[in-house]
Fold each of these.
Amino acid sequence: MKNRKIIAAALVMVLASFTLVACGTKETGSGSKVFTIGVNQLVKHAALDASYEGFVDALAEAGYKDGENIKIDYQNAQGDQATASTIATKLVNDNNDLILAIATPAAQAVANITKDIPILVTAVTDPAASGLVASNEAPGGNVSGTSDLTPVKRQIELLTQLVPDAVNVAVLYCSSESNSKIQAEIAIEAGTALGLNVFEATVSDSNEIQQVVQSLVGNVDAIYVPTDNIISDGMATVSSITNGNGIPVIVGEEAMIDKGGLATYGIDYYKLGLLTGKQAVKIIEGKAETATMAIEYIPDDEYTLEINEDVAAQLGIDIPEDLLVK
């Protein structure tokens, strides 16, 4: 009888070990834990892609490589808010150890579903104003990350330097992006202080870009576009109209310069991703928690002036000498 009890106990232990292996999807063959990271990126465009690349590279530099000791589940919503919400639900249901949300709508989609899984956000202008954290200095919950707030006031000043005769200026953005609304308010205040007549021109989705921009022809001297994901994705459509009609467009980030924007004081989104990746490393290693991890920013001295000289020539704009010295 005693031997039977010993055998029975041994069988229970064996079965328990099989159960752990079967349920422990985060274990490697050697038994070491694989940290899982779900990624919810709002849309594919150069700036957001660069932030994701920087995030992955920062992890790799710290020794965490996808497919080895971490597993990254990258998902892209292709600019659709409903898809971003569906992705958020999937990533939470998969019980990832950490979720990276790229752009404000993607971040809001994830934060609305879970208060337990740590979330890092990036390419979000103002996490506090977007309802993601209690404050940018002390988030107080399961969300932290990095902000892509650009020097909007300096960008408006740049507009007046390149287009000194400008009077009527439209701020073009997507009304569903809270980060863009925040920047629009800053731009209107800055432009008004400089004597400009600044007003909003909004779209609700990418399908309205062509119509709205076309309506501005003949009514504006220049356009300002903040770091708006929908407009950035459709910037080629914007510039095909504006440049053909002699309307300069000052933009919020460098990727829009490559698609026909005139100029910006921008940030390096790859560096922003690196910054976010370093935060992730601290979380993986148990050295920090989102609740007490302040939102981080690219340093002011790392903003870069970018001018599309081909567009300037097309528009007949003479670039001031002091701006040519970068």
Amino acid sequence: MHNHRKLGRLEQNMEMLNSHAKTWNLVTISRIKKHLNEEDLKQALEIIQYRHPSLNSRIIHSPKGLYFQSDETPKIALRVVKKLDNDQWTEVVNEEFNQEINSSRGLLRVVLVHILSDEQICYLITTVHHAVADGLSSIHLHSEILTYCQKIASGELVNQINSLSPLPPIEELLPEWTKGFRGKISSSLLLLRIAFQKIWYCPQSLSCEDYAPISKRRSNIIHRQLDPELTQKFVNLCRQENATVHSALCAVLMFTVARKIIKGNSNKIPVSCLSYIDLRRRLEPAISEEHMTVLAASMIGFHTIKTNTSFWELARQVKQKLEVGIKHGDIFKMILIVKQLIDFCFISPKEVVATVSVSNSGKVKIPKTYGEFELEEISFAGSHALYANVFIIHTSTFREKMLLNFVYSQPSISRHTMEELVNNVMSCIFELCTLNLDISFLSWMQS
């Protein structure tokens, strides 16, 4: 099915970030047990390109604006690389992070990584333009690709493919009250409130170790995992403490940064947390995860960490503020002010967007077996070169195991600093789960 239309406002912003900052493109990583044949994968990609209008599109720059166009779109680009060890997939991710998508030719590219030390293991890595995907849809896409690879490998004829109908711009899917004059007023008031809170709280962040202009910044990734037992303990503890996994992760990251930046006799540290929330199930009608589009919104919360602030108190505070924001429709209003927030980043490249950023896809609900192929792990991460000084995490839980991808912008944050922060995050989660005690900021800082 063809996809000819003008890009919506959010989609236009995603293209600007891709072309000017190599930022916010989504990289999804699957670890697969069983050799994945290159030719079978090529056929599967042809099928999903036909099935998804957005993946059969490219972005055309015209005097009238930016347009999706389906005509003459090349096949999805596939690259095959060989790496010696399992953990070298992160090298491929770093390469993908720092290469913009040539949107005039396509909006998705794919890398198949063969592991020389274990021929039964390979990695499927996709990089998709954020104008046509979010974390959930990019994860679902991997499940689709493996489904078709399994059918092709087993000799099953794939004759009938149902092409999905193109979706309109996200702004048209939002509730009616967000449109017209009322939408402009409510979104403007939210922008003013965020600006006021930023001035009032004056949140602190990681210090810039080495400044570079946006065009010279690079995204990098550090990967960690929680084993199934520790993951379940963490989930149960969050439930027991009337928090969520998302709010607990926000609290862990804010505690970690506060511990790093606290100075002298300071007894309080103002911080902020950027949270990404799924919009799909909050729309009427709901949009399924199989539709490739961007349906996630950010919300920012401001907090003050004092020496006597308890961890779970902070986690509950994050949860409460998110619930209030969602109830008041801030989750929809944020979509309407994204352009102003992005413009601010480009106008003031030294300004910090937030202290920390958390995107948690939760429990991934896709199959683990696809005929002879077994999906062992799946996670995602966004390229965030633009966001200097922000401590960023993307998490997903699959097969009872939590996968954590920490993303940072170099040279603002060095590899050494990032590894120290990541180790502190993992230590904090381990202490919470094993000791099963609430910890104050002061006690954890002294541990």
Amino acid sequence: MEYYLDNNYFFITCRTNDGKNYFYNEEVRGFILNLFKNIENDFNIKFSAYSILLNHYHFLLHLQIGKDISKVINKINGNISHFLKDAPKPLWDIYHNSNAFDEESFYKILGYIAGNPFKHDLVKNIEDLKKYRFSNYNELAEKYSYEGINEIICNVQKLNWELKF
């Protein structure tokens, strides 16, 4: 049985079932990015952070009704599966869900998502990350400043990318 807390932040990771890079081209990642924007409108929510990589995506969002997370994920994954008609079915692995229960966990998750293109070598430096349109790094920089979001990214302990700045 799954329990979803109301009025909570949800960190979601969803990966393709076989780990293959079905999102390798910009057309597919652009479709997913537009889908995220549509989800925000459809559910009247705002992603706090997101990154779309080559075989998975991450997002952090706040929901008033916790069980709505399954509706959000089903809509995202269903639309991506439909768009990728030639991909094998089932396309999706089980999604992974964590909650940000406090400010410290919120910022760790935010930094992990914002810096994830580094982890997967899709960007090599901050200038590349500024140009990577499949994450909301620049939106986060508007909110926290570039120095602030870079510090949030660097404070993620599992990723060692300080030297890339």
